[in-house]
Amino acid sequence: MIAIVMETQRLMAEPVPGISAVPDETNARYFHVVVAELFLPEEYPMSAPKVRFMTKIYHPNIDKLGRICLDILKDKWSPALQIRTVLLSIQALLSAPNPDDPLANDVAELWKVNESEAIRIAREWTRTYAMGN
Amino acid sequence: MFFLQEAPPMFFPSPSVSRPASQLTEEEQVKIAKRMGLITHLPCGIFDGTKKSGECVICMIDFTVGDRVRYLPCMHTYHTECIDDWLMRSFTCPSCLEPVDAALLNTYGSS
């Protein structure tokens, strides 16, 4: 628990550029992250944070329920990783989708055959669901 | 009169699976026993402040004189309590992801 407090203090002092992660007022293990939620399980940092997108997103590695296909959130987790590194990895995944290891097969398929159309839809979804217009 | 019943210790036959000892298969028990044996072969010591200090990246707390620390073959150092907890789940160094057993066997081979 001390580790979580230390980490939260550092994260507030030096936020990840482009990502806002704010601890919940009543639960130190729960973080509000732009359009996602991040939860530190009881075992953290021995097991990975649980991260999920709360808004719909058109991305080959994120499914309809907002679950993210990212190795460091699964079998490549290490207790040396932190909330900061997880957020940076998700940011990298958003800017560089990997359609060869898909979670949303239909999205991955379009990404491979017609990337510009896929990017157009992704932009549209972001405007509709994440920016609310 | 109340007695607090302590939860049975959990074991990790693989990083994402946790079970009490009573629910482990024989194969898993052997694997865990071997793992515990290997962990005791890793060098440990007491942090005396003579080497450059730093923090244990698992708990993010600076090493202070008197802390029990463990040294992995890749030369990364952690609090004994922190790293042992992790090694029981995954036998890799949290910092460089080097498998600890491969490095351990290499050390044996060369000495």
Overview of the molecule:
- The complex is a heterodimer of chains A (133) and B (111).
- Helix content of chain A is 38%, strand content 11%.
- Chain A contains four helices and four strands; from the N terminus they run αββββααα.
- The mean pLDDT of chain A is 89.
- Chain A is of the alpha+beta class and 133 residues long.
- In chain A, helix 3 crosses helix 4.
- Chain B is α+β, with helices and mostly antiparallel strands and 111 residues long.
- Chain B is built from three helices and seven strands.
- Chain B: This is RING finger protein 11-like.
Give the termini separation of chain B: 58 Å
Q: How big is the Rg of chain B?
A: 16 Å
Order of helices and strands of chain B: EEHEEEEEHH
Structural class of chain A: alpha+beta
Q: Can you give the helix content of chain A as a percent range?
A: 25-40%
GO molecular function (chain A): ATP binding; transferase activity
InterPro entries (chain A): UBC, UBQ-conjugating_AS, UBQ-conjugating_enzyme/RWD
Domain UBC core (chain A): 1-131
Active site (chain A): 69 (glycyl thioester intermediate)
Entry keywords:
heterodimer, A: 133 residues, alpha+beta, four-stranded antiparallel β-sheet, 4 helices, 4 strands, globular, B: 111 residues, three-stranded antiparallel β-sheet, two-stranded antiparallel ribbon, 3 helices, 21% strand, UBQ-conjugating_enzyme/RWD (chain A), transferase activity (chain A)
Helices and strands in order:
The complex is a heterodimer of chains A (133) and B (111).
Chain A: H1 2-13, E1 21-23, E2 30-33, E3 36-39, E4 50-53, H2 83-95, H3 105-113, H4 115-130
Antiparallel strand pairs in A: 1-2, 2-3, 3-4
Helix pairs in contact in A: 3-4
Chain B: E1 10-14, E2 17-20, H1 26-40, E3 44-46, E4 55-56, E5 61-62, E6 68-71, E7 77-79, H2 80-87, H3 100-110
Antiparallel strand pairs in B: 1-2, 3-6, 4-5, 6-7
